[in-house]
Specification:
The chain is α/β, with parallel strands linked by helices. The protein contains 13 helices and 19 strands. Strands 11-10-9-12-13-15-14 form a 7-stranded mixed beta sheet, covered by helices on one side. It has a 6-stranded parallel beta sheet with strand order 3-2-1-4-5-6, sandwiched between helices. Strands 7-8 form a two-stranded antiparallel sheet. The structure holds nicotinamide-adenine-dinucleotide (NAD). One of its GO terms (molecular function) is oxidoreductase activity.
Amino acid sequence: MRLAVLKERRADEARVAATPETARKLIALGCTVTVESGAGLSAGFPDTAYAEAGAEIAADAASALAGAGIVLKVRAPLAAGDGTLDELALIPRGALLIGTMGADKDAAGRYAAAGVDAAAMEMLPRITRAQSMDVLSSQANLAGYRAVIEAAGAFDRGFPMLMTAAGTIPAANVLVMGAGVAGLQAIATARRLGGRVSATDVRPAAKEEIKSLGASFVGYEDEESRAAQTAGGYAKAMSAEFLARQAEVVAGAIPKMDIVVCTALVQGRKAPILVTEAMVASMKPGSVIVDIASDAGGNCALTQPGEKLVTGQGVTILGYRNWPARIPAAASSLYARNLLTFLTTFWDKDTSRPVLPAEDDLVRGVMLTRGGQVVHPNFAAG
Ligand code: NAD
């Protein structure tokens, strides 16, 4: 079974879908691994490291993909009209394509038309059995960490209370908006740096998790928030009335904050606006807002996705996109292990190929297409 690892061509993407470590393990499974030259470079993995692990290095995407039965990607392959290269057209028909596939009806239709069996890892059910393959969790965790590190870098004072002979610098006040995987890691990281941390969320379970990490809970609670968690563990979209009440509480807390880390998301929707323009105006000069919800539009009304900006009052807003790619070596290592675990879970040793039973929960969750048909229940016609 030939397995290809492509270089990611999107402008803000520095990760790679296999590392020398996982390439070695894929070879041990029985794969012939071909890595497109330069695929790992921006994540700190040169061609020589893959070659030492036993992989073949291919000069370009077309030669990496020739004869491939499995293709590993971080992001959806570029298709006609996306820019320089129609990667999707180069993937052999019948190949199993694994990555974060930008799963929606249109994308599923494109994969079906290309005859590619696409496994969208972002659709993996968030169940215990799937934890070690959960790319959303592994990447969000690092994004939360990185957000706090970049906030510390952009902040013109310190995180911990610094007692010196010349006087004392107070600890930074940090507010984390949204305490899912990224937010909880942001809380833990800000605490480790010595910040005084509080956090808000709408799910009742998140409140307990915030407290268990030693942060204080800031938020509004009512009947609606007590039922704010979906069966899948995600937040529901809250009513305008609830958001207004929550905003009152946040508006009271924000003028004291030095750092605000925004991570709140509602699955399949634009991110909720939780930090209004007036709230930003109430913050002290030198304060920093890091908005890692920017890929979904951002939690701060002033966030410009992809940009860093400084308001007239001296508040810095880091609205960069794709936060996991800002810590590419670690993010690639975890992402690559997630994909390796997925493959080994379904690996048939006798035939040296993956066998993906349609009735398996994980397979049903991720497979968009099979044999030229859209099979995912969310996107299949009829
Ligand atoms: P997410 O990225 O969808 O959202 C981030 C956070 O934003 C969530 O905590 C959400 O409640 C919060 N949020 C949404 N609207 C908000 C608002 N108006 N104000 C404040 N906060 C708001 O979430 P996630 O990090 O992917 O985690 C989703 C859930 O899945 C969590 O309960 C997590 O613990 C769970 N999970 C479970 C497993 C597992 O294997 N059991 C694995 C990963 C995640």
